What does this fold into?
Amino acid sequence: MMQLKQTVKQFEDFKALDGVDLEIPKGTAFGLLGSNGAGKSTILRLFSGIYKPESGEVLIDDEPVYDNVQAKQKVFFINDETIQFSNFTLMQLKNFYKQFYPNFSEEIFKRLEDAIQLPLHKKISTFSKGMKRQAIVITGIACCTPYLLLDEAFDGLDPTMRIIVKRMLVDAMCERELTVVISSHNLKEINEMCDTAALLHHGKIIFNRQLDSLKGAVHKIQAAFQDKTRIFSAQDFPGLEILHFEKTQSIYHIIAKGSEEQIHQALAPCHPVLEDLVPLSLEEIFIYELEVLGYDSQVFA
Amino acid sequence: MTARFLHSFPVRNAFRLFRQNQKFAIVTCILQLLGIPLIMGSMMMEIYTDNLSDVYIPTNSWAYASIGSFCLGISVILGIFFGINAYHEEWDKSKVDMLYSLPLTGKQRFFSNYLGGLGMYLIPYLAASLIGWIVTLAFSPLVRSVLDMEDLAEFNRIYKYYFLLTLGLFLLMWMYYTISVLITSCCGTLFENIYTNILLNLLIPGTLAVLLAVVCSKVEIISFEYSWDVIGHTSPIGGLIYLIFLIATKDEMLSDYVSSYSGTYTAIGGELGDLGLAPAYIRWALIIVLLTIAILILAWRLYEHRKAEHVSKPFVYLGIYYVILTAIAVCILCITETGTGALIPVLIFSMIVYFIMEVIRKRGFKKFWMSAISYVITVVVTLGGLHIVSVTSAFGRAYYIPALASIASVKVEFETTGSNFDMPEYELNFSDKETISKIRDFHKICNENLKQDYNHQVRTHMDDYYSLRLVSMNAEDTTYQFRTSDQDENDENNYYYDDDYYSYRSRYREYVSSCAEFHITYYTVTGSAIYRTYDLLPDEYLNLLAICMETDTYTEATGNLLENRMKNMYQESYTENGITTRKYPDQIAFSVKSPAISNANSSYYISVKNYPQDAQIFTIGDVENNLKKIRTAYQNDLQNMTIEQFKTDEIICFMNGLPVYSCNAETCALLKEWGMKEFSLSANYADLGNYDNYTTVYLRIYAPEDYVSPSLEYATNSMGKFLFKPDASGSDIPCYESTCIYTNNFGGDLRSYNPALYDLLKVARTHYISNESCYVLVMNSNRYVIPPEYSDLVQKVIANGSLSGNTPSSSPGKILYGNTDTRMTSF
It folds into this structure.
């Protein structure tokens, strides 16, 4: 399990993480969502032992990560850049990482390499962006670490490449109890890949839930009420955690947290004549959650 | 075992680093492999062809040596890039995630990088050194075949030098690389990294040199020369200079080739005292190694403390930036201490440099008022600090004398070359408490004298006090220049024309201010050394000499000096190939020179062609016995000699530059037994026909004291320039006369021509030190003192001769010094 306990990470005046608590159980495909600068990459760098927290704890299997070889051997971190590998060939890259990760599997590397047919002895700098990404992903998977961290891993990949990389990851997860942590702005990918996700904003975790329960937990409601003379407000529905409230003529558009049953019960006292509940997509949840926190796309409307 | 080593992380990391910096490493490797082998090869080629007796083979060995030196120099300088490249993750943002996320601790990462970079830098150097060694060995049979025995002995030293130099350079390269690692730990960008490396390597020795020079100029008795002890151990550049001079100084053969006028040479030589080459080298190497380890530990601690996110931050630790900034500011501000009056321009210049550095660091003008404040603080602290050092004489450190109990030994060095006391240079080591105590007391008096205004003024404002004495010093010269004390020394109109003025002035200053240069070094029981240097006034020097003369160390040192000079006497011989110098093989050789000749002290060479006319040369067999005899005789004489005898006894001759006094009975007897003809001034001048080299013989008599007057003027007559005191007794009274009394056209015997002058010559002294004012006789530009008891003889000569003008009166109560050289004055 990967854990953050009251973790604070600060870059000079900027607090990137402000007392964050997070648990990522083994075998999970975990998505980190968040606005720009929310602290997603910081969490990944803390888990990979690159950053040292100012306070709090960063644990992998109950061991602190920073400056701990045993803990770091359990993590492989792939960031959003590939320039650092430019001077290597794929073979050299493999040999380089092999010396640091005792569980490195030549067999897995060979299998993956055969599958995607990357040149072993050409400089990675001559590869296309997608090929570079594939190269580091197969190396990372071959390292056979229990935890694989990917920061914007699918950036710049064409749809076919995305599918290939995703398959590799899914296969690896199926083969062993691999925990994958993906940070991405691409909610669709998180939606497809992850079973759990956390939303970060301004260094704090807004929510951390399983995606399935998350999707059923926020609804878009279209409702009309019997008393047309009365103008309802969010305060009229005290049992609901409303993220968005809007009235168009006599129709109310509400985004609210809660199950269908909870919403139904909350609306009942106002005698709805129309009650239409639609579950929100992850992207909509992202937007409305952040809107509540003041991160509003309407600012530029 | 080998396989395990090769697969160990540091080794593999070194390979990784090599791969990452492949092109750069290969270029440097080629340069290094070319450097030393080319230098050694060309050197051997040069020695070989140079020593072929019959054949002249033109070689371009200098060109190969230059290429080799260039390659070696460049490859050594590039060392900073190995330090920088080994720690890519510290300044290259793209590498941070990759390298910091590896399962390594900070310590493992630091040291594997360190060893990887160091290996890339130094392994090719070691390989090149080995190849250079092989080249030397391969050439040596060929070279040996053309060398004679004497040259062969010198040639054999090449192996020692080679080892010491390559090992020394290895240590300095290690230090250089480690400094670059330290800087990399402190900087977050490549630009800052490179420029900090360049600046710091130049600024460490540079600032130390400037700062210590300024401190030493402000606190005169602390000598700058000893600053090399600091400079030579704290930076690769300083260390390299130190290493070269250390080997050159401590090696008998090389020291002959190193100019004794070099401050570095004397400093390194003096500081290490009697340490031989090996212990001195080990001491230096040990300090370099310890300091490098200290830098490495500091670099590691800083590396561990810095965070991954610090990459791309120009200076992770601002301390190093402020060290550089302050060093630059200090170097510039120290210009104000040169006395050029350039305070405002220097402040403006330093301010510009300071602010440019700040703009570079801040990438703009953020919080610029902070820069202004820090600049003001830097200026105030630097100039204020220097002022405080000056006012407090380095916080009283300048006058510090260790307690008697803590002194293990004292080294006393004094040199009177160029002054009236034509004594050899002495270096005496005392370890007996009684003498040390006396030396300490003497040192205290020196300090007290120095603290007193008068002595300080004498030393620092020489022109104001003694410009007029310059007149009397060079009175016989018709082209001297002088100024009076109330005139502005910077105004050229106040000077009479003469190109030689400055040389006269400097000679005069040297004479008055530093009749002896005195260095004292206390070696304490804890192993430290405290060194001070003084310019002694004549009476101070005599006090010091009195202390030393009582000791066996002094006589022993003089005996050594005599023996050494006799053993190392060279003869110049003229062959068709030019002048060669050879030692006398089976004889002791020495020259005895008249005290009347000016170069009496330079006696290491006997020129068969052009030795001075009044020198006698002796070559005597039975080396061992005769050397012992003369040494024993001279030492015995010196042991029995008192300071009073030293002051007033006539010098009979200079024996290889060492004075033999009339009271040195044993020595005189031995020299006479060996055939020395005693010099006699009166006899020399008796027959004027001897002086066929001179067209004219001049005689002048004067009392120097009378010239000290601010109202002196000069006038000319047919014989040249003369000095008058127009206000004395209301009339123009010539203070001295310069009259042509004889020329060689007259020839003849002085005894019959001017018996009074002949009698005067009999008592005239080339060496005389007295508290009374004396007449001075000048003949053929040589000065002789007439002891006060013979003043009536002077009156006789004046009354008898063709001298004109009034007889000057003498004023008692002053010490008068005089000897064979043209320097002579009173105090």
About this structure: The two ends of chain B are 82 Å apart (CA to CA).
